[in-house]
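Sample entry (864 residues):
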Amino acid sequence: MIPIHLRISGFLSYRETAELDFGKFDLACISGHNGAGKSSLLDAITWALFGEARGKSSDVINLYPDVKAAEVTFIFKHEGNLYRVQRTLPRNKSTILEFQILEGGNEGDVSSTLKGQWRPLTEKTTRETQKRIEQILRLDYETFVNASFFLQGKADQFTQQNPSKRKEVLSNILGLEAWEVYKARAAEKRKALEREVDEIDGRMAEIEAELSEETTRKARLAELEASLKQLTSLRAAQESALENIKRNAALLDEQRKMMITLSANLERARTALAELEGRLAAKETERIAYADLFRRADEIESTYKAWQDSRKQLEKWDEIASQFHEHERERTPLLERIAAEKAKLEQELSGLQEQEKAILEQTSEMEVLQREIEATQRRLTEVEEKIKEREELTARLQSLRERQTTLKTENEALKAEMNQLKERIEALKSAAGAECPLCGQRLTPEHRKFTLDKLEKEGREKGDRFRANKNEMEDLRIQIADLEAQIAQLASAENERVQLASEVSQRSERLNTLQVLRKEWGTSGEKRLKQVQKLLEEGKYALEEQKQLAKLNKELAKLGYDASAHDAARQAELRLRSVEDEYQNLKSAQEVIRQIEDEITNLKEEQRKRKEEIEEYQKQYEATAAALAEAEAQLPDLDAAERQVFALREEENKLRSELGAAQQRVEILAVQRKRKAEFESAREELLHQIARYKTLERAFGKDGVPALLIEQALPQIEARANELLDRLSDGQMSIRFTTQAEYKDKKREDLKETLDIQISDSAGTRAYEMYSGGEAFRVNFAIRLALSEILAQRKGARLQTLVIDEGFGSQDVQGRQRLIEAINIVKDDFAKILVITHLDELKDAFPARIEVEKTERGSIVRLI
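Predicted structure, serialized as tokens:
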């Protein structure tokens, strides 16, 4: 940082504005009496850059009541750029900080620099702006003062710091804060990797939780499989039971027929008892009862054969229907594409019709807009006339105000002149000596009267002019008020003109848009509307799909499939299906008729035994009737049984679905195990990377690479400081830096990191506090110069200014001479060196001198 220009106002002892051009010297002495404000110049620089000075920031405002704020503007050069910092602290208010960079001007010419183009670097807040300044300088206040400024009372600040703080300051001076950035970046990457590990751990925990359910899931799968097996068995059993119920129902029908048979047998037996012929007739009647069924035997068998034929016909139609539906599936996408193309055209037609409707509606809107534009333009012309009138009135008002100001100024001058005349008249009237108090001539009665008349006449003339001006000013005030009222009435004309012009513009733009839309519709939309209507009317869309559809329709026609015939076959099969029961009954009746015929034969032979048989038949009939009643009572509800079977089938399907989901949940566990292995591999790799970044953090930390760099720099600083200290102490003093020391706990075998300063002279090695003020300052001065010079030799050094504040007072004549020699030795290594002293004998030892003087108006600065 190289100072270029400093401007101070209201800061500490500088009540009024003071400026200092640093471009006119490289080495200078700042001299002046104690309290004159020498150190305040340096405080101004540090306060401008860092907001800190020797006192609190609120104490920097000059104590005079008329000073409203402290303000410092500091221009400096840094790394080839010119910067300007302006810090202002109004009394009882917050600090205002502005930061800028020069984009034009000559950095060697202060006047050109002050007129250059400054680009602002100021951030949103003062804190952020201060942070940006420190980032550009790569220094904070403490490091800047420790390395570049030997401030009054702070020359020993580096040596007096504790080892840890001293090492931190040296690290900042050497630019090692970059390693903190590297450490922070490594830490950020490590934390990001740790977050990834945490995320992987979370996912693995989820997988573990899912894998922990394996036993439960497999148990659930087994349970569902068992339940499904049981339910399948139950459903099969229920279906079997349903078939049994159906069979039992058929058996009951047979039992009912048996009851009829038994009743007939009993009747025949009774009839046979009465008369053999009656019994035989009864048997014949019974045979006739069955004969009807046998007469219908051919019909039943024919119907049964017709049912078998209908089944075969239905199977044939089912096969043809299968082929038909295959072709029908091929027709479906064609029909969908044809319908989609038609819908697209219909949608386009609807949009074009809506557009045509909108165009027709816009025609009337265009006529309304044209009328509104014409009316608004007429109003706009009227408003512009009002604005022209207002401008004329404003010009007249300005002229009257200027005349009013002229008269007021003239009256103020006349009043002052009249007061002077009054004082002269009073002085002349009260004069009692021989000499005129006004002109110094001899004061005679004639001279007194003549002079009084002349003065009074002049006073009357001025009074007349004063009153005439006052009357004219009153007239002007009335005219001005009238003009102001007229102008106020026309005040809204400008806004009205803007509003009307905006309305004309908006409506004209809308009219142009509607005209363009109408033109576009006439050239393209209207034509397209007719095309779409024609395509829809003639059906000329999706031509390829329609061609393919026609081909499929022909193939379907070849199949000869007739849905109504298929349905009729299905209905016929369903209608004839009941003959199966009659056919079975016929078969059963043939067996029964044979029994009856046998009975007839037996009855003829056993006519004598029929009485006994009647009783037996009666018992059989009653038993059969009871069994039939009991069977009818115990027969389950067929409809309820069918509903139960349906419910079981539904439950079975639901259970199969649950079983599929359970199988999937079990199978996914294998995938999760694979994912877990992949996560474990990725986690292991991340942990290796985290370990590497932790190693980098340790390497970039203060005990890593920065400590090595400090240890490399310390020998150079130590050698250069000893070289300077040798000159300053005539070879009597030397220093040594120690970077490691033993712990107080002697049990520890390792050494702690430190930065101690050991000072030696002819009497041996002593603590820093044991040296006199002059000796201590020489040590501080040598270390500080060594630090600054080593930095100046390093590539891209940032400290190019050296300031020594009141360091000579503690030295004897020989010590002061050696300090001056040391300054001359290193002056070529710094762009600017400032030495502050109040000793007159040192002023001529420097090529330039900045004189600071305390006056009643505050401190002032002169460059000599």
